[in-house]
Amino acid sequence: GAVVSQHPSWVICKSGTSVKIECRSLDFQATTMFWYRQFPKQSLMLMATSNEGSKATYEQGVEKDKFLINHASLTLSTLTVTSAHPEDSSFYICSASDEGGNQPQHFGDGTRLSIL
Amino acid sequence: AQSVTQPDIHITVSEGASLELRCNYSYGATPYLFWYVQSPGQGLQLLLKYFSGDTLVQGIKGFEAEFKRSQSSFNLRKPSVHWSDAAEYFCAVRGNEKLTFGTGTRLTIIP
Fold it and tell me: Does B102 touch chain A (CB under 8 A)?
């Protein structure tokens, strides 16, 4: 149980385009989803926290107009990298937790984003 | 503010040998602690978690971790490692729903 699916797993696109990454909880309802960014050989940096039906809460230093997050249902959150540039290239990982303060976060397999 | 320190960036262990990965945390209240494992290019898989109760927790793949409040530690152990254990290991503490990760320990297994 507690499977999180992230799609796509790898995307390469030209500078200036927008890229959408989907995060789905397959067998549970995710009241909260999280988006992380991971640079090579580094730890995960939390970008934002999204709760179903409300606006995402962004961490300090994360541009909310650059990284658009939508959590329209209890099983789906999307991250859109708008007008992507090479410096946005990174590994993006989502996680989800269901109701209950003691529930751990379950992670997707990540999306490798490469901007040319 | 919560924080996690993993003092060992890289550890090399022979297959079949025992393993201990260190984790120290800083958190004002009773911590919720986790160990995750990440294979290259993959997401994170939960190995085990500590919320309360027995301070020695058992996880998947033969891993265990011991919570020591007096030392603010949550070290991960395995009595005998397998080549498939080679990966990056992250310790994390949770406060206010947010996870704070350590910088990770890369585990290399040699024959």
Answer: yes
